[in-house]
Amino acid sequence: MTINRGEKLILTVMPKKGTQVGKIFKRASDINATLQFSLFQPFYEGTAIRIAVALHPVRDYSLLKMLNSREFRNNKMRLCMPLGYTMRGSVL
Asked: Residue 84 half-sphere exposure, CB side, CA atoms within 13 Å?
């Protein structure tokens, strides 16, 4: 499954039995250097393994976008502070 988030793709990895999944995470920087992506970041989402990939620098992470996000506006905390974005583009 591939999810396109503008300039970034999120790929779902389904490794074959016996695959050493930890090596994907350990060697992410080497893989990125070889492929010359601006972003190659493996992450877990529940039990699923995903990889965020971008060919060009991702430019859509602005503070204004976070402050105007639904997640930030609908937060019930007394002091709400946006920390950044998840790999899926959701506000933390």
From this structure: 2
